[in-house]
Amino acid sequence: MSQAAPSKLVPATDHKSVHGILQTQRNYFETGKTLPYKFRDDQLKRLKAGVKKYEEQFIAALKADLGKSSFESYIGEIGFLYGEIDHTRKNLKSWMRTRGIGTSVLLFPSFGSVTSDPKGCVLIMSPWNYPVNLALAPLIGAIAAGNCAIIKPSEVAPATAKVVGDMIADTFPKELVAVVQGDASLAKALLAEQFDHIFFTGSTEVGRQVAMEAAKQLIPVTLELGGKSPCIVEPDANLSVAARRIVWGKFFNGGQTCVAPDYILAHNSIKTQLINEISQAITKAFGENPEESPDLARIINQRHFDRLVGLMGQGRVVFGGKTNRENSYIGPTIIDDVKMDHKIMAEEIFGPLLPILGYSDMNEAKKIIKQRPKPLALYLFTESSKTQDDVIATVPFGGGCINDLLLHLCHPDLPFGGVGPSGLGAYHGQDSFRVFSNQKSVLKTPTTIDVPVRYAPYGKKESIIRMLLK
């Protein structure tokens, strides 16, 4: 897989022009043109049409950057956007509607309402692993909520970043949506500007930096980060189904998915059998020589390749382990005999390496998970509803699946986000609309009735208040 230099594919945006782009958008937003329902709906239609127009270019770019198959590109990036846009358009009118809020006897005759106001001009910073989806899915919410937006794609996936920029420029006026291209120095220039909201998807380390810069100007942020997401497999699990779904979820996009299972916790009684089932499922999915499979993505670049190869130095490889630095290939790899202090258990893997650890009972499994920062996702394979309820109630995590992997991201009415170090805030569906909206609360009080109990002199009025507020 060829790795093109970002500077050749994507000319960097002049840092000095960033302020001008933002000011142009702010002036446009102040005209009020983004507020009406019809305008927002029209822009969502235009976004879908733009993605469709550039669909083949997106698929080719994803192949160039990540070696993605067209199937993974479509279901993981493009088709997801179509579904999200359709769901948003179907519900947008009701989401925009001012909501009446009942009040208590104490506030009679007042009544309340909540109106969703657009925040204004927002910044979307997207990563390289899903460079179409994670640049444009937040944009759906931003447009639906009536905002202007600037998108900074990741320079690490330069071919896709270029197509994102071309599509947006071809679809929207820059005063409404603009794409800026560049490296960390451009990101620093963007974070110095006064946006009304920052939506960042990426690593926890960079997320902290974004949050610190935003805090200097009290800019609200949404942080979609990552972490070590566990997958627990209980003795009563359907192991053949669990293995197929683990292989699909772990090695989708070459393991470069923020919600991929980072490690497996297999009950000691079924651990060996599960390893065998996963090994067979890998071979069935990718063949005897996965390097020849058209369905296995490649590692994004050689820096990440070298990092992943370094993680394979501890534990015992029981399946796979083959690498080819020249084409950024690392085969699906199962690693046994992993210790808790090994480096592979200290950082998010973000690649096709699958450590499998044993546990004796659920209390031990939960203890292992809780020794680490709260994960973005958790997966549990068991037929026991009691065990399912126990894990959901007692283990903190952003979201997850029972007897499946990744698919909670695809439900438009399930908010997606992390907790603690794995993220701040959630989106998808109506939650995307809410992320980019200010919930304006208003209490209206008529003047035809003026209840005197709140006015001085108070005298015996205190007894009335005590009766109402006891």
Low-confidence segments, ≥5 residues, pLDDT <50? 1-7
Number of domains: 2
Number of DSSP E strands = 20
Distance between the termini: 71 Å
State the strand order across the main sheet: 10-13-14-9-8-15-16
Distinct helical segment count: 16
**What's the overall geometry?**
globular
Key attributes of the depicted protein:
six-stranded mixed sheet; single chain; 16 helices; alpha/beta; Aldehyde Dehydrogenase, Chain A, domain 2; Aldehyde Dehydrogenase, Chain A, domain 1; 470 residues
Tell me what the structure shows.
- The chain has 470 residues and is of the alpha/beta class.
- Helices cover 41% and strands 18% of the residues.
- Helix 2 packs across helix 8.
- It contains 16 helices and 20 strands.
- The chain folds into 2 domains: 240 residues, Aldehyde Dehydrogenase, Chain A, domain 1 (3-Layer(aba) Sandwich); 188 residues, Aldehyde Dehydrogenase, Chain A, domain 2 (3-Layer(aba) Sandwich), CATH 3.40.309.10.
- Strand 3, helix 6 and strand 4 form a beta-alpha-beta unit.
- The strands form 5 sheets. Strands 10-13-14-9-8-15-16 form a 7-stranded mixed sheet. A 6-stranded mixed sheet has the order 5-4-3-6-7-18, sandwiched between helices.
